[in-house]
Amino acid sequence: MIAWTIYITFAGAIVLLVLPRVFARWIALVTATAGFAVSLATFFCDDVDLAHFTTIVRVAWVPALGMNYHLALDGISLTLVLVTGIVALSAVLFSWDVIDRANEFFFWLLLVVGGSYGVFLSADLFLLFLFYELVIVPKYFLIAIFGSTNKEYGAMKLTLYSFFGGALVFLGIIAAYVSGGSLDLNQLAQFQFAPQLQSWAFPILFLGFAVLAGIWPLHTWAPTGHVAAPTAGSMLLAGIVMKLGAYAALRVAMNLFPQGFQMWRTWIAVLAVIGIVYAAAVALRQRDLKFVIGYSSVSHMGFVLLGLATANVFGVSGAVLQMFSHGVIGALLFAVAGRMIYRRTHTRELDALAGMDLRHALPFAAFTFVIASAASMGIPGFSGFAAEITILIGAWKSYPLAVWITGAGMVLVAAFTLRALKRAFFDVDGESAAPSSASAARTDARQMPAPPAQITSSAERSIHLEPITIPEKLGAGLLMFATLAVGLYPKFLLDRIQPAVEAMRFLK
Amino acid sequence: MVGLISIVILIPLAGAIALYIGQPKNARTVALIFNALSAFYAAMLWQKFDATASGLQIVERHAWIPSIGAEYLVGVDGLSLLLVLLTSLVFPFAFSAQRIERGACALMLVMQAALYGTFTAQNFVLWFLFYEMTLVPAFLLIKIYGGENRDYAAVKFFVYTFLGSVAMLLAFLGIYFAKGTFDFAALAGLGKGGLLAGKLQWLAFAGIFLGLAVKVPLFPFHTWLPDAYQTAPTGVSMVLTGALSKMGVYGFIRLLVPLFPNEIKIAGPWLLALVICSIVLAPLAAWAQRDLKRMIAYLSINHLGYCLLGLFAITARSTSSLIDMHAALSGVFLQIFNHGLTAAALFYFVGLLEQRRGLRGIDDFGGLMQRTPLLCGWMSVAMFSSLGLPGLNGFVGEFLIFKGSFATAASFTAIAVLGLLFTAVTFMRAMQALFSGPLAESCGGFSDLVRGEKFVIVPVTLLMFAIGISPQFIFNIFNATVVQMARLFA
């Protein structure tokens, strides 16, 4: 049944091209909802074996060359399919205001989503790579056509990084195919690759995938890409696309080449820890709200990589949980920054936002951002905490030193998140101790188009900001519910993730 | 009694004569009618072709010049049929690219006939006749109908190719005097034991290699190509890259490798090194070009390099297993077809841009996405196909080639992956310069695709997707031939 997520999404994309533009967003909504519903239904379906990568569809494709259309499912895949469904649905809801070339916009959006479902469910290396690369093109167009700041640069950088990663992956896949004699992931996972081959094929394959997961120092596409992308684009990038890299690194690189993984995992941990701390430190100095969130994505993905590098059940399960968690939280943060704030104020500069008193102008946005920030900082009760604590427990067993450094990194994460939250919504300058009538005076005249004298109270100032719409509330509600639900009851996901992780070869 | 293959060869010739005598007003329409006819007969050929049988089929054999062992011997196997189909596809595509004069139409039809002949002839004398028959029309088309710098380009093209041909002819004469046959199948059977004695063998090898390497072209014999492709009219560029360049690769597969298996093994690493240069350096050169046609021309060198990579990788070592050989050969065949389709499409699109703007420098355009979304969209598909994006035709062929080559020549193959990356960079840069950014003033009056253009582009693009998603129908054409050739090469 879960295979229908792929078919429905691609079918929706094609229907979009055929029907007139007025239907575009409704078709996208129906498609995304259907995909989400299918993944949710599978999630609550008990008779699925989630401990093993169980085949659900297998059709010969190019039999002479051993290529099959082969889909399979285990707890890891299902978790990621679920987060894809959630993020896709909320991305459509947050794109409800896209009018210009809406068909095309939702077409590209659904292609990214469909390709991602495909990657998470592929059990054939060729098929996986096909879906993986298929996601690159729509990403480029989403950003290059519909993006904002510096969009051509961001789109190009992201695409070139993706192609670079793709070339490495290509080489690694060929190496696995040639020596393993099969493209079937389950068969390859049984095959004993020569240690010498593993020692070089693993880093190539892992690095190729990790580019998309934002591994330091190959992360620089992520902040610029996120900033340049339209809101839904950033949500998909942070929420889904970065997970593609991490998922494939786990499913393909680590599972096929366990010995290579053992040889290199310390280096992965080092890069991951540097990524966590470095990105958080950089985020602390950003002036653009989306850049802050972009770097926070890199930092959070560093946790995923650290979890993978631990090579024990806790760390890897935590990494998968963190993929889910960051997918939801990253999407939520970008939704607030891109749709709720930027579409209304036309600025993301923290200094400019500080003068707008957004907490009164957009109370719902403020509320959402507080929740998202809390989740992002790893406050207990939200999914971020559950994931990161699981990763750190795992890391404690493998790399105690990394836990200490990462702990410092988490302080930085809290620092930059709080700074962004405060500057964007709650800033009160020293001189504005006076009541609200004087609050206008503190507004920086350079940033505000209207002369401060005309604005006497925050309530009046907020008039020109249109209120938060219903679709935005629905989308934000969905994401907030997801992060809270998993935060309060992580067992719900972990029960499905852990058996699948235990079946992975590098743990045996 | 004229056989089916002869009909396919003769139809374009008849078309050329009809154009010459009849002097019709709309020469292009007449040419397209003859194209449709030959395509119809090519399709009949495909239909009659038994895909499960190996070896030559639908053979026609007539005595021709018995005293020198020259026969009129034509027949098709999977590879020949594939190339006949490709030719039937590329020519109508090229004719629809732009309005061309009667003379040019006639010359192109002559070239088409010669190509059909080249891909089906199974006797060296006949093959060489057709092979050379393509040269003169191509030369004239560039020389008379070309753009700027056409004299230089035409002469360079002619001299290069002709020198290669002479070297090849000498080599074959030597072989003939030693073995007394011109028949491809017979020569291939003799290849294992060595055709000539001692040094002569190497001379013959070098001569044939040179002739074919110029035609493909392979680094460092490629310098005629950018000049020729750049200056030729759009339709001619499409044919040059889509069909004519395949003669070289076809020659490598049909002649050089079967005839000189031992020499290939000895020279293998050097050949592979040249191929790697083609694959890696050509896209770098393309990256540096400002002229779109030149850029695509350089990328053509890169794509044909993949064909030769697959071919040399499996034949240069005796260790390659049959499975890898099957993969690599299937990949090479598919890549031949794909490149014909995709490169022609790219030239077609550049032609469309040139028609609208009058120039084709990469800097002469900008922001086209706003003005002509359809043109940009379909052109992007062709570009993505060319850079080997999964889901489109280019990827399948390249994947198989890399898979097959990796087993025997891992390090060379690993370096060749760089070529993929550079190609991607080149195309992305071109796309960005053409499609995005602010709309260039000079492009303000552009019209998007008109109906006739859509009518051409949509089927070609659909074919790209079809091959990318379900390549099996193409594999079916040459599966038996691949198995047979792998056995021959092993």
Describe the secondary-structure layout.
The complex is a heterodimer of chains A (508) and B (490).
Chain A: H1 4-18, H2 24-43, E1 54-62, E2 67-73, H3 75-93, H4 102-121, H5 125-134, H6 136-146, H7 151-180, H8 185-190, H9 195-213, H10 221-228, H11 231-256, H12 258-284, H13 289-310, H14 313-345, H15 350-354, H16 358-361, H17 363-377, H18 383-398, H19 400-426, H20 436-439, H21 458-461, H22 470-488, H23 491-502
Antiparallel strand pairs in A: 1-2
Helix pairs in contact in A: 1-2, 1-4, 2-3, 2-4, 3-4, 3-11, 3-14, 3-22, 3-23, 4-5, 4-6, 4-11, 5-7, 6-7, 7-9, 7-10, 9-11, 9-12, 10-11, 10-13, 11-13, 11-14, 12-13, 12-19, 13-14, 13-18, 13-19, 14-17, 14-18, 14-22, 14-23, 17-19, 17-22, 18-19, 18-22
Chain B: H1 4-22, H2 27-48, E1 57-65, E2 70-76, H3 78-95, H4 102-120, H5 124-133, H6 135-145, H7 150-179, H8 184-191, H9 198-215, H10 224-231, H11 234-259, H12 261-288, H13 292-316, H14 322-357, H15 368-371, H16 373-386, H17 393-408, H18 410-435, H19 451-469, H20 472-489
Antiparallel strand pairs in B: 1-2
Helix pairs in contact in B: 1-2, 1-4, 2-3, 2-4, 3-4, 3-11, 3-14, 3-20, 4-5, 4-6, 4-11, 6-7, 7-9, 7-10, 8-11, 9-11, 10-11, 10-13, 11-13, 11-14, 12-13, 12-18, 13-14, 13-17, 13-18, 14-16, 14-17, 14-20, 16-18, 16-19, 17-18, 17-19
Number of DSSP strand runs of chain A: 2
Strand content of chain A: under 5%
Strand segment count of chain B: 2
Oligomer: heterodimer
Structural class of chain A: mainly alpha
Structural class of chain B: mainly alpha
In DSSP terms, counting alpha (H) and pi (I) runs of 4 or more, how many helices of chain A? 23
Strand content of chain B: under 5%
Specify the number of helices of chain B. 20
- Which stretches of chain A are low in confidence, meaning pLDDT under 50 for 5 or more residues running? 430-463
Largest interface: pair, residues per side: A-B, 34 and 40 residues
The rounded Rg of chain A comes to 22 Å
H-E order of chain A: HHEEHHHHHHHHHHHHHHHHHHHHH
What summary fits the major beta sheet of chain A?
Answer: 2 strands, antiparallel
